[in-house]
Amino acid sequence: MTAPPADNHNIPDPSIRRLSAYLRYLENLVTTEQRRVSSRQLAGCVGGSDAQVRRDLALFGQFGRRGVGYEVDDLIQVIRTIFGTRRQWPVVVVGAGLLCQALLRYQGFKQRGFTLVGAFDTDPRKLGARYGDVTIQHIDEVEAVIARHHVRLAILTVPATAAQRTAERLVRAGIEGIMNFASASLNVPADVHVNRVDLTASLEQLSFQLSSHRS
Question: What is the pTM assigned to this prediction?
Answer without folding.
Answer: 0.75
